[in-house]
Amino acid sequence: MADPTPTAKAPAAPVTWHRRGTGTAAGHRNRTLRVRTSAVLVAAVVLAVLVVPLLIPLDRQAVDLALKLKPPSWAHPFGTDEVGRDLLLRCVYGLRVSLLVGVVAALAAAVIGTAVGALAGALGGWVDRAVMRAVDLCSSVPHLLLGIFIVAMFRPGVWPVIISVALTHWLSTARIVRAEVLSLRSRPYIDAAVSGGASRWRVALRHLLPGVLPQAGLAAVLMVPHAIWHESALSFLGLGLPAHEASLGIMVNSARSSLLAGDWWPTLFPGLFIIVPTLAIAGLAGAWRERLNPRRRSELML
Question: Is residue 186 classed as helix, strand or coil in its secondary structure?
Fold first, then answer.
């Protein structure tokens, strides 16, 4: 005969949330190793672009067809290009141009985006709607296509490329800054400042703008790799720097025929000089982002 007394069901196993690699010693070591590696690479890049041009001027790189397409050796660690110039020196000079374009364009784009985003978020109302609709309209055009249109209006050179990158990369910064300003406007100390008789401009300059500067700075650092890739793409298409200048994009474009002939080094090393520094800068920017937003350090998994 069955026992009429009901039995309590066993409690269900609790659902636990696991963080991928965070909170563990291994995850901390991985992040530390990533940051240190990125910092060493960025320091090596900055040191190379500052010291090498002082020691070896580019004017020494005269055309020498006797050294045409020599493979890597002790005399030429990266080999030579299609006209006998040392690839290591050319890559360093090309990287210097890319960093110049990337840093200046990123700073200019960050200033434009911060000003537009702060204006839209601080004023609100129809100004906010009009500005953000303009941002959406500009975002609908591909960056590279708009950059080609801007560069085509000028002669080839560094400053047209900087203007092109700056005018096509401020949109994301404007969105980030606007969202941060809207978040800050709901803080109690902002209400207290307004209740105390502070004007909108005083609140914006004394309270809102300092609060968005860390996010704007992070956006500028994250923009540097995009600007370097943008400059390399324009130079690869023949719309960036003049053909005789040392540019990584021009070097990759000039090495296409050599690659088809089996000479791999004129393509590999300029490509690495584009990829490695951008990944290093992105790694440092990622560590900065983790410090600003620790809750987004990793993805929660069920």
Answer: coil
